[in-house]
Amino acid sequence: MIKRLLFFCVLLSAGFASFGQKTKVGLCLSGGGAKGLAHIGLLKVIDSAGIKVDYITGTSMGAVLGGMYAIGYSGNDIEKIARDANWRLLLSNDVPMTDINVEEKEEFDRYLAELPMKGLKPGLPLGAIEGQELNKMLGDLTFPVHHIADFDSLPVPFRCIGADILTGEAVVLSKGYLPTAMRASMAIPSVFTPVKWQNRLLVDGGLVRNFPVTDLKEMGADIVIGGYTGGRLFTEEELTSPIKLLYQSASFNRVADSEMQKGLCNLLADYDKQLQEYSAASFSKIDSIIDIGYRIALQLLPELERLADSLEMTDNANHQPLKRYYGHEVCVNRIILDGACEESRELVLGKMGLAENTTYSVAQINDAIQMVYGTRFFDKVYYTFENNVFGNDLIVHIKESRRAAIKFALHYDNEQAAGIVLNLTARNVLGNGSRALATIDISEYPKLRVNYQKFIDSQQKQWLHGGYHYEFIPYRLYNKGRLQEELTNSYNNMYVGVNYTLTKSSYFGAEINNEWSFTRTKIYPEDRSTPDSGDFRSLNSREWAVGFKYYSNTLNKFLFPTRGNRVKLLLKIIPGHTSINNYYTLDSVHPTHNFDVSLPVSPAVRFSASIINVSKVNRRMAWINNVFLGLVYDIRIKGHNNEPYSAAAVPGLFFAGGVQSRQRDNLVPFLGYRETELVAAQLLVWQGGLQTELMDKLFITPGISFLAAGGDITRYVENLANFNLNYQDFTKGATHAVGYGITFAYNWFGGPISLTVYRATGVDVIRGYFTYGYKF
To answer: Residues 138, 562, 661, 92: is their CA dihedral positive or negative?
Structure first.
């Protein structure tokens, strides 16, 4: 009651002041993370009352909302932006796979964790989140005022608060680049990385001044409207964990300061009690938080209207309409790189593709920045403008990633057992613009991948690549779903080539590769109780090839994508191929009980096309099409009546079966068969599934698949349309199968988990496939 009487006294004095100096109205918004979005309701009510705000201060989320309000966004504008934003993406290090350059897509998002190397030891970053997507959004939203470096020159003068992590001081941000100031004010320690600002290292201002009313008064505000999201000390009953105890210890001064600042407000929307069931991380509940904020702020509407009347605010137009001006253009006078080491300058400038003294749109500048970030050579890339007598200088701020990083993942599935995947990636170590990596799968079925690539032109579009790939995997032979025999396969591939980047998401390449493979029975015939003469023991095969590749990937995610395409086209010319079969014998002529049969194979051409299309049906559903076509012309055994060859261990053939894709291009998933269950020279597979997110991170995908396989390409084409559903019956030129199943999956933070139940025509049993983690 006393506070309301004082407010009416202020109104009365404001009325008298209107005859002299204009009464100034200030708006102060506290921090609070997700809870800070309740301020949107207050902004809408202020707009409804017709209040013209003269000054704004804010901390953390209050700085973001206050900054947007200061440059001209209305409460309704900010509400729409907040409700439409992907907060999970903004407040993480995640980026859509569409933002990653094509040279890096096949290594993106394949690991559980990544640690930067400090010398020869793994280290930890200063914060978990760099905020690349958040920086991008803030820069986009504030672009209409990119030329304003003095926050007093904004449509509404503005201040926000940061905390100097080195001194513990509150830092009032009044000049500089607005989106960087907003980002600094919400840099929660250990969550977001600190922000460098004019020789200071800043973190969330809420640590020292969560509700900056005194700063608003210093700007000249006579009447203060405040929005406070809460912040109190825990009771004895609530102190139930060490984390809460630490939080309490660090909160004494902050809470006391906020209570003092609240007392300086003339009108206060206090959301503390109504938001106690929410936390700073409750971004999944922003709709209800905004609604609560609006309901509480509505209680102030009568007093705000009286204030507007007393100050003769009759125009009811608080804001100039603002939009995210993608079409807005700016002339770039100079391009200045801040933070880029000498080894990276050519890479940055080449990937940006911008020229000085040239006019660009906002979209073009954003795309150029994303091309640099998409190389994955940098932890953070963003831009600011500096205006001088010569024009607009584009300052590109770069935070170099560590030269080396260790990555790891865990995996298990009932086809290839459990394993630990370790990766070491080094950049700019073996030449500027280079990336070298080594990945190993420590498992019952070990694998190794070594790869090197380096850009070789000034535009950073041509790149050399080379490497070695090794796998030891099981081959299992089935008959109508029943396991007949187990084999193992050691596969090796050495390659070197050159690629040309066509777009951010596609490239064309050529390479020379040498593949060799050793396949053997898991138990040799001589180790069995009743061996038969002529039993297969092993097969050695080798081929050289010249290959051409087109690759395009616009999928938005590596796991559970909801839109986009992936296209992989491969053409290999194989001059020659040699296979050596080894058989067991009881013949006394062969005292070692085995003999070899050498099988040189004629030259061949192999083509494969793998196409994945993901179409979004609605917010929770996506239809996935997966098509594979593989053709071989012509693998025939010399000296054996030119009969088509179909032995299981030739690298040039295609292996169909399994639920998930593997690294090798000739291992093709088919819902219905186990991995490598079908071997063929000609193969067509189509799979379709409706991926549905039942609730957050929980998916169900019913699917169906179709297969057509054959040996000789001529007979295969002739009989492709003659459906033959007999289990792997190649006698008619082509064999067909239909599979169906359902997958249940959960995208757990420790790695995806899924269970698939499936069956195919000609198979007598229902199969199951369980998998966890990230595959090699």
So the answer is: positive
